[in-house]
Amino acid sequence: MTQSFPIQFIGERINPGFKSTKALFDNSDIRGIQALAVKQAETGAAYLNVNTGSRALTDPGFMVEVIRAIQDVVHVPLSFDFPSTEVQRLCFRAYDPAKARGRKAILNSITEHRWGLADLAREFPLRVILMSSERVEEGVAKGNKTAEQIYGTCCRGVERLCSEYSLTADDILLDMSVSAIIADTDGLSDNTLQAMTLVHRDPALGGVHMMGGLSNIAQQLPPRAVDGSDLKHSLECAFLTIAVPRGLDTVLGTPWRQYQPLAEDNYVLQAYRTFLASRGSNALRAVRKFYRA
C-alpha cells in the first residue's frame, strides 16, 4: 500500500503494548502472530518491529520461535526492540537475512548512555536506531531539551557509529523522540522539529534517516473529539505534514492507517502549529481548546 507521504513504515504491532498482541503472546499463538506479521507486510511495512516484552528474559526460546515463525511467512526485515545485549544477541542469531532478501535487521535502540548495545555491530551486519532524546555529560545521562542538544547528540552518535563501527549513513536511523503533546509544556515538540531541520541541512549527516513514533503524539488523549472525529489520526497527519519536509522519512507506526498531508488552512494543522508555539499553561489550554472545538 502506497502512503501519501514519502515515508517507510516500521510496523509496530508485534508488541505486548497492544492488548490484542499481548493476548497472542499470553496464549503462545504463533499462527496469530504470523497473521499479524502478514497483515503489516501486506499493508506496506518496510520493517517489522519485534518486542515480546518481559517474556524475552524469562522465555528466550519463545522469542526465537516468534522470530523464525515471522520469517517463515514474510520477507521484510525485522527490527529487534529490547534493551538487553544478550536478548539482542539471541535475536540476531535467530534472524536469517536470506529470508529477508539479504537485508539487515535493525537494532532498536541505543543511546549515549546505553551505548554497549552498539558493540553488536562488530558481531552482526545490522542497522541501528540511535535515540536523540538524551546525552551524557561527565558520565551522567541527561535529557535533551533544546534543538541544539538533540542535534548535538545526533552528530556525535553518527560520527561514532561510522568511525568506530564502520556503519554507513544509510545504516543509521535517528529516532527524533516525538513527544506526547499532553505532557509537553516546555516546547520539546517544537524543539524536536527544529532539530530535524538542523540535521536535514547538515551535509555531514547526509544519507542518515530520521524517524519517530507516531502513536506518541496523542498519548493519554481521547481518541476522538466531541463530534466523533478521529483527532489522534489527524494530529499524526499534522505532525507528518510539518516533519516530512524537514527530512523525516521513517515512521514506527501502524502501516494500514492512511496518512494524508493536510492543507495549510486545515483546522487540526493550525491548532497543532498553535500548540507548537505555546509554552507552559498556554500549551495545555491549546490542547483543551483543540479537543473541545
Topology:
Layout: E1 8-14, H1 19-26, H2 30-42, E2 45-50, H3 55-58, H4 60-73, E3 78-81, H5 85-94, E4 105-110, E5 126-131, E6 134-137, E7 140-143, H6 147-165, E8 172-175, H7 188-201, E9 209-213, H8 231-243, E10 248-253, H9 267-276, H10 281-292
Helix pairs in contact: 2-4, 4-5, 6-7, 9-10
Question: What do these coordinates show?
Answer:
- This protein is α/β, with parallel strands linked by helices and 293 residues long.
- It has one domain: TIM Barrel.
- The chain is built from ten helices and ten strands.
- The strands form two sheets. The chain has an eight-stranded parallel barrel. Strands 6-7 form a two-stranded antiparallel sheet.
- Strand 8, helix 7 and strand 9 form a beta-alpha-beta unit.
- The longest helix is centred in the middle third of the chain and has 19 residues.
- The chain starts with 7 loop residues before the first strand and ends with a helix.
- The model has no long low-confidence stretch (mean pLDDT 94).
Can you summarize this structure?
The protein has 293 residues and is an alpha/beta fold. It has helices at 19-26, 30-42, 55-58, 60-73, 85-94, 147-165, 188-201, 231-243, 267-276, 281-292; strands at 8-14, 45-50, 78-81, 105-110, 126-131, 134-137, 140-143, 172-175, 209-213, 248-253. Helix 6 (147-165) packs across helix 7 (188-201).
